[in-house]
């Protein structure tokens, strides 16, 4: 039994180290709050934890028989490790493809933009016409302003595309501008929490107002915007004078 526990402990240590390296790197680089929440990353992470920290070491514990020939034991553990690495690679690739690249203010709300939201064509266009805001493999999340273009025909085309469920301006980094350049427009879109009408926050304004008061904010102040992603939206609370985000509040708990 001691041999089994030693094998289990060594496998668990190795699995935990590999998992911590992958998830830690992704978290520190791209998935810090509110990125992990808005992208739904918590749907992928538990699978990785289950395979790499539970299933793998447990199987090693079950097969680690000291009477088994060492070559056979190494082969069996090798198969388990290969399956773990495949699962880890798949999960890491999924998280990498969906990593947050932008928090974009557009029209009347904030929206998270993931790498998977951007087509290769749009990325190429951005690198040619707006390289300062184009995404690259090493790009970290940044806050940007995504205004609709001035040209009426292009503006109408993008609006029609968004209404039909196609690409919106937030999927077109060639139009992105600096966050600071849009603060004047953003300030004009700030609303009291009671005036936030996002369908997914229906009947939750009272809860959000309570949470604002608990955090020392004034719910009746025009200081909030909706921040949307793949999960339930967040309420972004701003300092109206400095136009600086002070908190993100959840309404799904």
Distance between the termini: 44 Å
Order of helices and strands: HHHHEEHEHEHHEEE
Question: Unreliable stretches, pLDDT < 50, 5 or more residues?
Answer: none
- If you average the pLDDT, what whole number results? 90
What is the count of DSSP helices, taking H or I runs of 4+ residues?
A: 8
Largest sheet: 7 strands, mixed
- Please state roughly what percent of the residues sit in beta strands, choosing from under 5%, 5-15%, 15-25%, 25-35%, 35-45% or over 45%: 5-15%
Please tally the β strands and state the result: 7
Strand order of the largest sheet: 4-3-1-2-5-6-7
Which structural class fits the helix and strand makeup?
alpha/beta
Shape: elongated
| Rg computed from alpha carbons, rounded to a whole number of angstroms | 23 Å
Helix content: 40-55%
Total count of domains: 3
């Amino acid at each position: 039994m001691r041999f089994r526990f030693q094998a289990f402990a060594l496998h668990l240590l190795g699995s935990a180290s590999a998992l911590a390296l992958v998830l830690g790197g992704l978290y520190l680089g791209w998935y810090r709050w509110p990125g992990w929440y808005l992208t739904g990353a918590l749907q992928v992470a538990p699978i990785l934890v289950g395979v790499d920290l539970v299933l793998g070491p447990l199987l090693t514990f079950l097969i680690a028989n000291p009477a088994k020939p060492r070559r056979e034991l190494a082969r069996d553990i090798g198969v388990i490790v290969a399956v773990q690495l495949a699962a880890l690679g798949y999960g890491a690739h999924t998280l990498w493809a969906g990593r947050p690249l932008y928090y974009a203010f557009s029209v009347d709300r904030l929206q998270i933009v993931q790498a998977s939201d951007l087509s290769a064509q749009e990325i190429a266009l951005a690198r040619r016409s707006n390289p300062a805001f184009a995404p690259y493999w090493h790009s970290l999340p940044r806050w940007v302003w995504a205004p609709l273009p001035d040209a009426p025909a292009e503006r109408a085309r993008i609006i029609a595309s968004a209404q039909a469920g196609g690409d919106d301006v937030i999927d077109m980094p060639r139009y992105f501008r600096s966050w600071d350049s849009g603060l004047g427009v953003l300030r004009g879109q700030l609303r009291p929490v009671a005036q936030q009408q996002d369908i997914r926050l229906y009947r939750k304004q009272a809860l959000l107002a309570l949470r604002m008061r608990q955090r020392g904010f004034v719910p009746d102040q025009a200081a909030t915007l909706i921040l949307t992603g793949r999960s339930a939206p967040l309420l972004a609370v701003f300092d109206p004078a400095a136009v600086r985000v002070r908190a993100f509040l959840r309404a799904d708990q």
